[in-house]
Sequence to fold (214 residues):
Amino acid sequence: MFAYIKGVITEKESAGHGHTVVLESQGFGMDMQVSQQTFSVLPEIGEDAQIYTIFVVKESEVILYGFADRDEKELFLLLTSVTGIGPKLALALLSTFRPDQLCEAIVQKDDRMISQAPGVGAKVAGRIILELKTKIETWQQKHFIESQTQLSNSHSEVDEEVKSILTGLGYSLSEILHTLAAVKKQHEDMSQDVEGLIKESLKALGAGSVAHKF
Fold:
């Protein structure tokens, strides 16, 4: 229905395994369910944001799911194409793993890792691997090409410094490019702020304790 929505974040709430965000746009307040990964990278209340969306219509309800970037949205759609995987289980997987982590687990047939997500047992993990391995390999190749293009087009000294620091902390180029692009999209005012970009990137990568040092 809508590829994405731009607006101002008016509410952010985390309860148990659920994370919700209210985005106000053109006078409408849209309640979105988001993953832990998206929740952590989105700006604070009162700040502007662009959130990619998917509407899921059921007999008794209409739910709007939000994503910080296209990659997470595309992976959500791939997960919900698996037999027996609904939106809630797909969101649980995306809350447990970053897109690159989950993709690697699927390609490596690591059902033990995948089954760490709430509600995902060995049988479901095996089905995800069986139905998505080839699709994920194709998706990864597309993402790698786009990342390499992005790198070659980026000549910003700030970007290079951020990449250098994150590489030194052990993150792969693919992880860095994916995360940095998402952070810069959500925090446009940080384009020249090395410290801010590193801090927000580390938060998105799940390294909160390290982020506090910057």
Observations:
- The chain has ten helices and five strands.
- The first helix runs from residue 36 to 41.
- The CA atoms of residues 202 and 210 lie 7 Å apart.
- The domain at 76-89+97-150 is CATH 1.10.150.20 (DNA polymerase; domain 1).
